[in-house]
Amino acid sequence: MNYKIALCLVMIFSANFLMAAISEKQVSIIENLIMNQHLSDNQIDQEYLESCQRLNIRYSDACDKCLFGFESFSEFKTDLLGKSLAFQTIQIDSVFSKIIITNQSKDSKTIFLKKDRLISSAFYYRQISQTYECQYYKYYFSDSTRFNQFASNYLDNETDKFLKNVGLNKDSMKVNLLKTKKINYIICKDMDEMECITGFRTNGIALLNEDTIVSIDPAHFHEAIHILINFVTEKPFLYTHPLFQEGLAVALGGRSGRSAETMIEAGKFLTDAGFICVSDLFNIQDFNQTDPSISYPVSAYVVTAELSEGYDHFLKLYRKYSGNAQQINQMIINQNDLINQNKRDSLTSKYNAPFNTKNINKKQLSKKENWTISEISNNNSNDYCYSLIIKKGIYLFEIDKRINGFKSRIFAENLPNTNYKQQRYLLKVDENECILYDLFLEKIIYMISNGFSDQPLIIEQKNNTISLNTNYELLIKLLK
């Protein structure tokens, strides 16, 4: 099909872009995308195609991997058939151009082209970005102050652990392929840049078409897991029940700026307190109707329990509850496939100790201007924890000049009028929460909150102080 579209083009010149007329070849690409028809080899850029295929991830239920993400163009099918679309073609430079497609409702979609052949917006962005390579990832960024090597080292280390846990030898051909071809990682300087690249205002997203992470944070392992699990699974399906898909990503990589440990703690509390039953998430329709602030941490809690049985056990579950689009919509998890409920419930809090403790010995370890640390031990066992009395406020720890130039988003949000001096940790204490951030990784690594307990974990004291009990050794180390 080749519809003639009436266009009202105004020639606008600027320092960067030139408005141009649309060609028949460009119209043909757009029509094929909207009508969900196959694109010929001369309509897709070869370098983009090779980028999509570099990790050898082939989905059992989907072809044309390079066209993942373009599915929404079919929403314009009626507008195309009704000849009511308007095109605005912008020539970015001698190689790249983009076309903004708008319907009568003023909804718009954008495609990027390289010499009149289709590419993705992320592919275009990578061509104009600064880069840094580590063992498993190639970073791209427009603002170098959003990158630091502590974050890339963290991602490499977590990836090493994951590959080992799933049984891949570090010298295997598969691991060497990942080291050579790498997962792309685009760090966005802000939400506006994120929206320009992905179309969404979100902290992060995994683009499965070209195995690329796009995130506003420099160490988003949650999104990496979405790509890695498909990399290690032979001929994966594109769709997996979210209890396992998102549960794994949260259990290993956290979510929304919170570490995996804090999310698992939240999931355990939500189930223990009766806010939700695990079985409420077995039906995929019920899962999708549950708020992610509940379904995601509970899924991480469930997956953590399944991982305690070994990765072979979990991967069998992951494969069993994967399928094509039709299969996934009818999928319901069988309770008998999961480990015993009592065993799951036996998972105990790593870091949060109850405030009221009987038969205890208390020994002061450190006393400073704003806090006092004591060790509490039980007369009847070897168990111990720490008691902390601390003034409310924000505290900074561990300056590291090796990442000079990095600017922490979380630091700026909490201390907008303060100069960042490459501190690694920020502790925020008030009457309801005690939160420890890793500023280099841009996430919460520890949190005690009265909102996630049926008994007070934080007690407000006189002189603007609070008291709490904790088992988190890093927090005590920083305060000593």
Give the helix/strand layout:
Layout: E1 18-20, H1 24-34, H2 46-53, H3 77-81, E2 86-91, E3 96-102, E4 108-114, E5 117-119, H4 121-127, E6 130-133, E7 137-141, H5 149-165, H6 173-181, E8 183-187, H7 191-198, E9 204-207, E10 212-215, H8 221-232, E11 239-240, H9 242-253, H10 260-272, H11 284-289, H12 292-307, H13 311-320, E12 322-323, H14 325-329, H15 341-345, E13 360-367, E14 371-378, E15 384-391, E16 393-399, H16 409-414, E17 423-429, E18 433-438, E19 443-449, E20 458-460, E21 465-470, H17 473-479
Parallel strand pairs: 7-8, 8-10
Antiparallel strand pairs: 1-2, 2-3, 3-4, 4-5, 6-7, 9-10, 11-12, 13-14, 14-15, 15-21, 16-17, 17-18, 18-19, 20-21
Written description of the protein model:
- With 480 residues, the protein is α+β, with helices and mostly antiparallel strands.
- It is 33% helix and 23% strand.
- It has 17 helices and 21 strands.
- The protein has a five-stranded antiparallel sheet. The chain has a five-stranded mixed sheet with strand order 6-7-8-10-9, with helices on both faces. A five-stranded antiparallel sheet has the order 13-14-15-21-20, covered by helices on one side.
- A hairpin with a 5-residue loop joins strand 3 and strand 4.
- Helix 10 packs across helix 12.
- The longest helix has 17 residues.
- The N terminus is likely disordered.
